[in-house]
Automatic annotation (TrEMBL):
MF annotations from Gene Ontology: oxidoreductase activity, acting on the CH-OH group of donors, NAD or NADP as acceptor; quinone binding
UniProt similarity note: Belongs to the short-chain dehydrogenases/reductases (SDR) family.
Annotated protein name in UniProt: SDR family oxidoreductase
Gene3D superfamilies: NAD(P)-binding Rossmann-like Domain (3.40.50.720)
Pfam family, one: adh_short_C2
InterPro entries: NAD(P)-bd_dom_sf, Sc_DH/Rdtase_CS, SDR_fam
Superkingdom assignment: Bacteria
Species in which this protein is naturally found: Erythrobacter insulae
One biological process term in Gene Ontology: fatty acid biosynthetic process
Keyword entries, A-Z: Oxidoreductase
Amino acid sequence: MELFDLSGRVAVITGGNGGLGLGMARGLVKAGANVAIWARNNTKNARAMLELRSIGTGEIKALQCDVTDETQIESAMAATLAAFGRIDACFANAGISGAGTAIPDITQSGWDNTMAVNARGPALVYKHVSRHMIERAQNGDAGGKLIATSSDQSIMGVNRSSDYAASKAALNGLTRGAAFELARYKITANALLFGFYETDITAKADPKFAAWMEKRIPLRRSGDHTGLEGLAVFWASSHSDYITGQSLPVDGGLSIS
């Protein structure tokens, strides 16, 4: 038996049509999992679905879903269960970079928008996914994985990023609360604090920022997307069953520099 075989398992990845989410999805389908992508952009959803179907054995479904809209979450949840019958792992990955304003320039609309996507969105996704997992547990099929895409910025200071940092710190708190509350159902919750990876978000930054970051990172490089594949498989597998409530930096040592 393959050590990390996920055949028959079902994973949801919000924002899974690009960046970190797509990198994790690649690993899950290669390990045999069925994957449902919940993301806003239908064009990117279709492109991601075609790629994933070409590299793995698992079934793929891509659903349009804005995590700030609970009605869309409910629809995506229903469609996923109709297609696959269950959800074993949920990667709360959808997120935005924030308003990019200094603290004296914070606006209510900018702050609220960042919080809506990065903090409230995962909470609402977990609300509906955990209901399903709890129901399964009550019927003798306990277990589930909640994995959040957080950020080093939740534990570090960065200029013009207070809303983003606060939203990810809230996500870390949600992770700890979920881990404690849901442990009785053998549902684990963990957050991955990613450092500097090349994504659509970081592509918008000044190129000098990337060069500065790579000098600051002890391993002297940005994160590689290939490495995300095995990371996702580990967290979706039974080998992470005894880890819960943790906020783990995945950053080449950036958070200790």
